[in-house]
Amino acid sequence: MIQTLFTAITVLSLQLGELPPFEQVSDGYEPVISSIDGTPGMYSIFVNEDDNVLMELGPGFEGQPILIAYTISSGIQESGVQMGDIYGYWKRIRDTLVLVAPQLEVRTTGDSQSQSGYERAFTDRVVLDVPIIATGPNGGPVINATKLFLHQSGRIFGGATGGARSDLGTLANAKSFPANVELAFEMPLGTGNFGSISYSIREVPKNTGYKPRVSDHRIGYFTTAYKDIGDASSEDPWVRYVNRWPLEKADPSLKLSPPKKPIVFYLEHTIPVRYRRWVREGVLEWNKAFEKIGIVNAIEVYQQDEATGAHMEKDPEDARYNFVLWTNSDMGFAIGPSRVDPETGMILDADIVMDEVFINGWTRMA
């Protein structure tokens, strides 16, 4: 009887050009709380038994910069290696939610005429779009995240998920932390092998006081670059910012000062006990470099331990924490993916991935 009433309300709402009530579209869904202390997530997510995920964006979502990192996390040899990321912002156009990527590759610092010409030629672009199906309990738009991130995965992964059977996809992970949302779906890939595709969505903080640092071409850095067309007399129109942590002295007057906010890494409990000491010392070795610029104990390292429960409440997928992770996927190398603000080069978070075969290879060479 109640379901029939909800259906009737939905039909009437659509006829009137209105969105159906959230109670109708969320019937059979349960909210997901991921933080151990119950802190509300970046977005509210709800799941049902059919592996569908509803996601409500919070108030003030429009124009807030976000970064979506995407990965094939299982099913291929390079599983877990981040494939790419999308930087953009959500925009509501009537009853559709679109993800818009700003124009960052080309910019101008020229006069007002140069700015006008630039804005005419270089515009933002729509990357993704999905219907808004309701207004959520917090007043934000609600979308079907399964339809967006599973069934439209080809718009994000390109040919990497070509031939994948999204119709056979199932939900593998759905978490919402205060600073990020994690979603993963399992489906047969084009090869027929079961594989998982993962998304990590986080807000990019602005107005933090961070100052970009222009790179020196004589020194190797990972950089964030753009072309400045505002100065025709410049021999090199490219501007390159160093990708770096927002690290600064707690007391600038001291020759050697602790940091205002240290870089903290957690060693995941999956790291074999026989290696933990060496991994810890390897990470802390970087403190010697930071001492050269007057910052002591810039990096802190803590061991997550399943036996004692130390730091087990921290989830490696929670963007508030940086982790050193351990895999045994026959990759034979280690990687250090980080998420960076593409407008400034500020590192937002990082997770180091070390593989067992990488260590075994060095052992055999010794």
Question: What features would you describe in this structure?
Answer:
A hairpin with a 7-residue loop joins strand 4 and strand 5 (82-93). The protein starts with a helix and ends with a helix. Mean pLDDT is 88; it is low at 1-16. 17% of the residues lie in helices and 32% in strands. It has 2 domains: 17-203, no CATH class; 248-365, no CATH class. With 366 residues, the protein is α+β, with helices and mostly antiparallel strands. Strands 8-6-5-4-13-12-11 form a 7-stranded antiparallel β-sheet. Strands 1-2-3-10-9 form a 5-stranded antiparallel β-sheet. The chain has a 5-stranded mixed β-sheet with strand order 17-16-18-20-19.
Averaged pLDDT, please? 88
SSE string, helix = H, strand = E?
A: HHEEEEEEEHEEEHHEEEEEEHHEEEEH
**Tally of helical runs:** 8
As a whole number of angstroms, the C-alpha radius of gyration is: 23 Å
- How would the global form be characterised? globular
Number of structural units classed as domains: 2
Low-confidence stretches: 1-16
Number of strands: 20
Strand order of the largest sheet: 8-6-5-4-13-12-11
> Could you tell me the strand content as a percent range?
25-35%
User: How many angstroms does the end-to-end distance come to?
Assistant: 73 Å
Q: What is the percent of helical residues?
A: 10-25%
